[in-house]
Amino acid sequence: MTKGQIVGLVGIVLLFIGVLFLPVMNLPIIGGIPYIKGDGIFVLILSIVALILNFQKENKRVFIWIPSLIIFFILVWFGINFSERYASMTAEMDIKLRGNMFKPLANAMMMSVSLGAGWYAMMLGGIVTFISGFIKEEKKDGE
Question: Which of 130, 4, 131 has its CA nearest to residue 57?
Fold first, then answer.
């Protein structure tokens, strides 16, 4: 295997782990939610496409940047959407619970809502996979 293929495989493994095993979002009481229950199926399919492209010859393997860039945009969209919804829920909660004695408890629960390790693993995997498509192999004298 070439250096680019090894780097690509590391990124793809991070994508698979992030989609299948790690939570993409942490919620109070419920716990971690895996991404495979949402848009993760698209990330999983694109990761399989990237895996197939990773083991192609060098002239076809360079196209690995296409599925990894799509994965990156899906995850950025998810992160922005998550941030916007979190901000609107927090603002709405502040308005609706004004004067309520349970507002500190609700604030504590809202503070525990966060992006999970799966989102970070998939972002890192998408970036590493994207970079792997641009790693050029040196030509040896015998080739």
Answer: 4
Helix or strand run (H / E) with residue 34: strand 31-34
Q: What angle do CA 130, 131, 136 make, to 5 degrees?
A: 125
Residue with tokens 């309520």: 100
* pTM score of the predicted model: 0.85
Report the candidate in 4, 7, 3, 13 with the shortest Cα–Cα distance to residue 47: 13
Q: Cα(70)–Cα(82) distance, rounded to whole angstroms?
A: 18
Q: For residue 63, give the DSSP letter.
A: G
CA atoms 55, 58, 123, 88: torsion sign: negative
Q: For position 56, what pLDDT does the model report? A: 86
Question: Would you state the structure tokens that stand for residue 15, as one six-digit string?
Answer: 């994508």
Structure confidence by residue, pLDDT tens digits, 81-108: 999 999 999 999 888 988 889 888 988 8
Rounded distance, CA 130 to CA 114, Å?
26
DSSP 3-state of 125: helix
d(Cα 115, Cα 32) in Å, to the nearest integer?
9
